[in-house]
Structures are given as structure tokens and as C-alpha cells.
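Regression test case RT-17, inverse folding.

Input:
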């Protein structure tokens, strides 16, 4: 897949210029930005990268906690940044630094509409879901995790700048039958998917990750595309259907339940159990306030789940 071509075809390079000048976009921590600039250089040395990360104490703590957590499954434990990077390898290290740095940038910005702890709980839940779906698809699970974790990273900033508009969306959801992205396009002429992808591209994120952010509200469409169905884009798009504070996709869980009939390896209940177990074992300090299993079980109280699906959505439910 030519990810650069995919991005160029879908992403308006001027989208960031359409944002209001008063909007203060998040900035990556200096150590993260420097690491990302150097990690792909042909002559890069792990000791040099270690020295960069060691200038950020918070990043060091998160890296060591991540590497030594039971969810990673490494046989050896790390007591230094150098050991951690060596054990993870540069590819996984880059994904970790990128996602952790982005979280730090966004967490520093408070939102009047979004509860930070619940926001990151939902983000981690979606990321773990995408990771497990990717394994079933044969896609890259680490990139799927990163793409899903970061899919909504601009929303805390945007909901502050456009507080009244987003509050209107939440206050009367029945007036907006489509997704949050549909509402944003109608209201602003852009959405958080395109804005987030444009900023990630400016930060030199990997093209495939930028494309995951760009297409995360594509729903079931990637599964019907032979080029995309075994890529992280498909996994991230499915994860975006999970519920969250902003109710971005109405009836998303019901649509995922319907997918079970078309995809033998897709068991929503089993996925929920895996996600909740991984969430609890990661030790990242993010409480699982809304277990996915509980949400899935609540589907059983919906009298006719098929009635929530439009003909267009049913047509997208292609066998996987």
C-alpha cells in the first residue's frame, strides 16, 4: 500500500490553516520531538537515542514501567533507558515514545467538556481493542494500538475552542444522526480526523499512522477494501465505533455485533474480555471505569439490534 499516495489523495494540506488563529495546538515534548527526528536516521545509535530520552524524567518512568509490565511479555527486565530500547527494538520504541509524548502534550490541556481520566480510559480501551482486532486481521498490532490511542487526541483542544458548538452536539444528540465527524464537517468544514492527521503529518509521524488518524471514522468501509482490510486502518476504524464521552458514533456497538455474523473470528464478547484483562494488567495508572464487557452485555437489553442499521451499513457488512 502506498501510504503517501493515500494521504495525499484524502488530506487537504491547508486544513490546519482553516483552524482559528486563537487555537493553541498541542506541542510535543522536546525530548519526544528530538527522538522522532533522529530515530530514522541511517546512522542512528541506540546510546544516542537513550541520552535524548533521559532528559525527560517522566518519559523515562513511563518507558521503564511499560517495558517491565506483564502485558509486554519480555523475558528480561530493564533498569535503564538503554536496556529498555534494546529490548523493545527501535520500531516498538518509536511507537511507544510517539504515543506517550502525544498523551503528555494533550493531557496538559484541560477541556471544559471532556473528563481527562475518562477520556484516556476510553482511548486506551479503543487502542487495546484495535490491537486485538489487528491480530485477527493479520495487521500490525502495535501500529493499530498507536493509531487508535491517538485517534481523538485533538478533541480536548477543539472542544475548548468550540465549546458551544460541541455542547450543542452533546445536548441534543437526536438532532445529529450521523457521527461526530459528520457534525464537524457540517459545522466547520473540517473534522478532528483531518485536523489531527494534518498536525501528525507536520510532526513527521509515520505515513501509515497519519492515515490511521485520517480514516478512523470510515467505519466498516476498510473491511470491504481489499487493499485496506488487513491493515491497521481497518482495526482503528472498528475501534472508533466503541462508545465514549462524546458519543461519536451512534449505535457503534450494535454495528460491531452485527459484524459477528459476517466474520467468524470476530467475537465481540471475547474481544471485550481480552481488552478488559489487558487493561487491568498494563499498570499504566488508567482506571478501567467502564469495562467493555459491561457495555457489550448491555446490548442484550436492546430489543431489536438489526433495526438500528441502515441499508447502507448492512451493505458494508461483507464477509471477512
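Golden output:
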Amino acid at each position: 500500500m502506498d501510504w503517501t499516495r493515500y494521504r495525499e489523495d484524502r488530506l487537504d494540506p491547508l486544513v490546519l490553516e482553516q483552524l482559528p488563529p486563537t487555537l493553541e495546538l498541542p506541542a510535543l515534548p522536546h525530548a519526544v520531538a528530538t527522538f522522532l527526528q533522529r530515530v530514522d536516521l541511517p546512522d542512528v545509535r541506540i546510546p544516542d537515542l537513550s541520552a535524548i530520552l533521559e532528559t525527560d524524567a517522566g518519559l523515562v518512568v513511563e518507558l521503564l514501567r511499560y517495558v517491565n509490565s506483564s502485558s509486554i511479555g519480555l523475558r528480561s527486565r530493564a533498569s535503564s533507558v538503554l536496556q529498555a530500547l534494546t529490548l523493545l527494538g527501535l520500531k516498538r520504541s518509536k511507537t511507544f515514545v510517539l504515543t506517550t509524548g502525544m498523551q503528555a502534550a494533550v493531557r496538559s490541556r484541560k477541556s471544559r467538556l471532556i473528563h481527562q481520566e475518562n477520556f484516556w480510559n476510553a482511548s486506551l480501551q479503543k487502542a487495546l481493542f484495535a490491537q486485538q482486532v489487528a491480530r485477527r486481521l493479520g495487521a500490525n498490532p502495535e501500529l493499530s494500538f498507536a493509531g487508535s490511542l491517538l485517534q481523538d487526541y485533538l478533541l480536548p483542544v477543539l472542544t475548548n475552542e468550540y465549546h458551544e458548538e460541541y455542547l450543542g452536539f452533546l445536548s441534543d444528540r437526536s438532532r445529529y444522526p450521523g457521527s461526530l465527524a459528520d457534525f464537524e464537517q457540517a459545522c466547520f468544514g473540517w473534522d478532528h480526523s483531518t485536523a489531527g492527521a494534518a498536525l501528525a503529518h507536520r510532526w513527521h509521524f509515520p505515513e501509515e499512522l497519519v492515515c490511521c488518524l485520517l480514516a478512523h471514522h470510515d467505519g466498516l468501509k476498510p473491511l470491504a477494501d481489499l487493499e485496506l482490510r488487513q491493515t491497521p486502518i481497518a482495526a482503528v476504524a472498528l475501534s472508533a465505533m466503541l462508545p465514549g464521552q462524546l458519543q461519536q458514533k451512534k449505535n457503534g456497538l450494535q454495528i460491531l455485533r452485527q459484524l459477528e455474523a459476517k466474520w467468524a473470528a470476530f467475537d465481540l464478547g471475547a474481544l471485550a474480555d481480552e481488552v478488559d484483562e489487558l487493561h487491568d494488567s498494563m499498570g499504566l495508572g488508567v482506571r478501567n471505569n467502564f469495562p467493555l464487557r459491561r457495555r457489550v452485555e448491555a446490548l442484550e437489553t436492546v430489543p431489536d439490534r438489526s433495526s438500528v442499521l441502515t441499508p447502507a451499513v448492512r451493505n458494508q457488512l461483507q464477509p471477512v
